[in-house]
Amino acid sequence: MSRVLVLNAKALLGTWPLGTTRVNGARMPQLPQLENAWLFAENGRITAIGQHATEAPPEPTPETRIVHAEGRFVLPGFCDSHTHTVFAATREGEWEDRLRGLTYQQIAARGGGIMSSAHALRAASEEDLFQQALTRIQELMRMGTVALEIKTGYGLNTEAELKMLRVIHRLRRTLPLEIKATLLAAHAVPTEYKEDRAAYMRMILHELLPRAVEEGLADFLDVFCETGYFTVKDMEDLLSAAARYGLKGKVHVNQFTSLGGVASAVRHHALSVDHLEIMTEQDLRALRGTDTIPTLLPGCSFFLGIPYAPARRLLEADHAVALASDFNPGSAPSGNMVHTMALACTQMKMLPTEALTAATQNGAAAMDLGKQLGSLTVGKHASFIITRPLPSPAAIPYFFGSDVIDTVFIHGDIVRSGSAIA
Ligand code: NIG
Ligand code: FE
What we know:
Elements: E1 3-13, E2 33-42, E3 45-51, E4 65-68, E5 73-76, E6 78-80, H1 92-99, H2 104-109, H3 114-123, H4 126-142, E7 145-151, H5 158-174, E8 178-186, H6 197-214, E9 220-225, H7 232-244, E10 248-253, H8 261-267, E11 272-275, H9 281-287, E12 293-296, H10 298-304, H11 311-316, E13 322-323, H12 337-348, H13 352-359, H14 361-365, E14 384-387, H15 395-398, E15 405-410, E16 413-416
Helix pairs in contact: 4-5, 5-6, 6-7, 8-9, 12-13
């Protein structure tokens, strides 16, 4: 039986009450914390937490791993609910072209962008894709990520999309973190279907989606609903088909233009609407009062130089806003969730407490993992981060670019060992 006992933490952060699966905007500024506290985990679960002043921690047995966390914060691990972590090649050349003045859309129009990733991925072996992603995710775990959603969308034909799904499943079996797989075949219309988008849609609806479901490879469905990519009607057809198979939607909407995709996604009970850089009053109204989680990706705005999503408006409307990295080779080549939080604060005016909840509990909710992860609550997975000594919780996103993470546990096992362990 594995046991971990963290002692003398400056504070446990995100100690949301039993039963918390998501946190709405109005409650997000008040990050609950236990000061001068301990945390006990057995067999990968948090079994008790308490404050030294009022309750003694359980007696350690010889095999209990003791962690001395003086001066440090303990927080739930990051739940990154939107990534494209499986890819075959980086795209720095396109980035340099953008630095010289081309836009993301101009690069896509000349055959670059998502299509260039698809060419590279189709040519790559399953083993190569797996090894590359493994290395990337090992770095993400060291940066505190304990749950990760990974999308397909660089295969763009049945064979290559299924190859991506199999790679994601092998990663899930190999690595200790939680991984969810999202079928994003409707990420771009591949060159061979350029003149016949409807035929590509039929291929997804009648061939790929049924295969992915039959083989038990997809948890969610995604669509890039955007000018020049897929229409609102395409998205509706895909979300309806997915619903018939019991798959929820997590969709790319309003990244560059507002097409009415938000209202439509909400009508189809999408679990999350992601990006939202360009939001009209109508889009904001459509979302209000719904359970759909707005997932914001400030790393993409930073890297592409596009507007940031209206985080304050969404928080004021009481949405359970989530933050994710969007890790991908084109628009956000970083899966660093501390940096994502720093951008959310500096660029979107989220408070550090709001950003912490958006990157943990609400990210978990956006993957349907809100019951198991996202807070330091008894019964949840012992997947948490111990910081280096810091003055306050706000210092986590404040020291942007610094490595504030010291030690990371996933399911009660150490995946990064820092000075708190020595
Ligand atoms: O979330 N917008 C669509 N998909 C990705 C970018 C994919 C790529 O450029 O490879 C995004 O930004
Ligand atoms: Fe994305």
